[in-house]
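Methods — Computational structure assignment.
A single polypeptide chain was analysed. Its primary sequence is given first, followed by the predicted tertiary structure written as structure tokens.
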Amino acid sequence: MRRDDPLALKGFITADDILSLPLILARRAIAINEIPSWLGVP
């Protein structure tokens, strides 16, 4: 993430902040299965 990105300027981010953004994730099954539940999406 670039230093001037609005998310980089926040003290913390929420699921709503990243829900519409493309994310780069590990191909590990645990990450693929857990992240949607952290974000509250099916």
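Note: Helices lie at 15-18, 29-39.
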